């Protein structure tokens, strides 16, 4: 069972109280973007084995979106943080690199 | 004016805990910045209760304010007072990004109370992914979650008494869930 702490209400919510929202930190391509950039925004997702940054919504709770860092292979949760950020905060990065020294945010975004 | 009735008109069921529909309740959704002085002042002056902390509900008689999300409060008042309170809250929020809406007829309220036979905590623990132990869920706490497949919010109004709010359209489903969960002989005896 996946348990994530909602950064807004502090509840350690189990999976059935949450709704998954896919990859976090996607930059929206809009007016003025070329076709390749728009295609990448729509369809290309980072999908490596291991560490992922994801969007989750506390749907049966406070209703807010937040971000979670977790490993899809070990199911370890590195932490959750509010959605009002463009990049993961330093403490989340530190928690990930403590276990996965080679991991970097930029490298993960480009991974397939 | 039409005669307002609650969803299940006060139906109740007795098992190892009693489940009762609480009847009409004035409920107001108040959205806005919780740190804004005008909103905090409106809660204390107009509603007459303290501003609730995260995941808590403050009460004074029939009036209450419950924390719903970082920008939402649920204000509870007697049913007949709701339109007047909405008007006063709206006036108090003038000029700030906020909203007060009368939701009284969109919701149903249930009371779940334990008996000598068993605990009300167990009724909820069977249905919701929430730690219902006395140490974890204390009096004054208020939490939004799910009850089987329905979105609900509930708070502890006593050591073994809970107030539960759900959508009016799901009232019968929620009542059936609660009364089934409270059926005599089905208590596990954890709490």
TrEMBL record, chain A:
Gene Ontology molecular-function annotations: sarcosine oxidase activity
GO process annotations (BP): tetrahydrofolate metabolic process
Recorded superkingdom: Bacteria
One Pfam family matching this protein: SoxD
InterPro entries in alphabetical order: SoxD (IPR006279), SoxD_sf (IPR038561)
UniProt-recorded name of the protein: Sarcosine oxidase subunit delta
Organism classification: Bacteria, Pseudomonadati, Pseudomonadota, Alphaproteobacteria, Rhodobacterales
TrEMBL record, chain B:
Classification via InterPro entries: SoxG (IPR007375), TrmE/GcvT-like (IPR027266)
Pfam families (alphabetical): SoxG (PF04268)
Organism: Litoreibacter albidus
Protein name: Sarcosine oxidase subunit gamma
